[in-house]
Amino acid sequence: MSLIDANNSLDIFYNLIKDKKCNKYSNNLKVGVDLGTANIVLSVVDEFNNPVAGASYPASVVKDGLVVDYIGAVEIVRKLKAEVEDILGTQITYGSTAIPPGTLSGNVKAIGNVLEAADIEVVSIVDEPTAAAAILEIQDGAVVDVGGGTTGVSILKDRKVLYTADEPTGGTHMSLVLAGNYKISFEEAEELKKNAEKEKENFLLVRPVVEKMAHIVKRHLQGYPVEKIYVVGGACSFSEFEEVFQKVIGIETIKPKRPLLVTPLGIAASCIK
């Protein structure tokens, strides 16, 4: 799959979620559940990783790989499961999920327990940047997953993961900067961050945060012959985001379309029973 193909799949997946529809499918479905910091996304692909259906729900039940509202997380996953089952006309029984790199084993178990409590058998748990690499079909390079609270890095060679890391600094830090500048609540800043009309003005304010992320990534890439960086995650949606990374790190930086949906779709692609 080329980047053009991946972008096409991401557009299809976005529209399936928006329109609450599904594509034709055989019985060999693969399911992923992304317990993100800002959204929980349930994604379904076929055996060839083509998008079939999906659903999303805004939530703050997970922080940096730690489940902070277990009951709330289970209820949302159950809701999304029922919604997608209704769209598909079939039952979802198993699926995969993902974690930030370096998540402690107890937190990994808690995330798996959320799916099990929602009657989804967990068949695999992968780290988030590796899941993103699966849908982008990256053979060599680095995948940077910018989440709500952390920036995760995976370095790949011949499709094998050589190195992973995860450090604080993500979309939450951008929102804190905006909240402080405009003297508004964190929740209002989260909404302002998504305002397309204010993008240029907002990016000037959060640019130092993006530069810090880039320096984090640059440090982790030292000693590895990385020629391309792929950035994913909702926090990298700013149009100038990849330009800052490229300037700071000095390595070609690529941002797929719909960066928020790359990891959720990759989690489903990684679902091997």
Automatic annotation (TrEMBL):
Does Coiled coil show up as a keyword for this record?
A: yes
What's the superkingdom here? Bacteria
Which ranges form a coiled coil? 179-206
Keywords recorded for this protein, A-Z: Coiled coil, Stress response
Family stated for the protein in its record:
Belongs to the heat shock protein 70 family.
Its name, as the record gives it, is Chaperone protein DnaK
Lineage of the species this protein comes from: Bacteria, Bacillati, Bacillota, Clostridia, Eubacteriales
